[in-house]
Amino acid sequence: MTVTEIILLIRDIASIALMATGLVFVLAGALGVLRLPDFFTRMHAAGVTDTLGAELIVFSLILQAGFTLLAAKLLLVGFILFLTSPTATHAVANAAHRAGEKPLLSRFHPKHPRDREGDA
User: What is the pTM for the complete model shown?
Assistant: First the structure.
C-alpha cells in the first residue's frame, strides 16, 4: 500500500466513525421524542441530540469531500445549523411556555430510599 492509499483509508474510517456516531445521536433523539412524557422534555431530546448528530454527519461529509468547494459549502451549512438549531428549539419551547403549556412534574414519583428496602 502506498502512503496515499493509507491516508485515504484513514479518511474513510474517520468518516464512517463520524457518520455512525451522528446516526446514533439522531436515533437517540428520535427515541426521546417518542418516549418522553411531555412537550418540554421532548423538545430537549430533539434539540440537543439532533444538533450534535447533524453536525457529526456534516463533518463526515466534509471529510469525504476533501479540500474542495463542496467542503466549504458543507462547512457553511454546518455553521448555519450550529446557530439555528438551538435557537429554533428555544423559540419553540418559549412559545409553548407563553401559550400556557406546563411541564408534567407529578407523573413519576420515585420511592424514597427508606421505602425501597422492603422491595428487595
Answer: 0.80
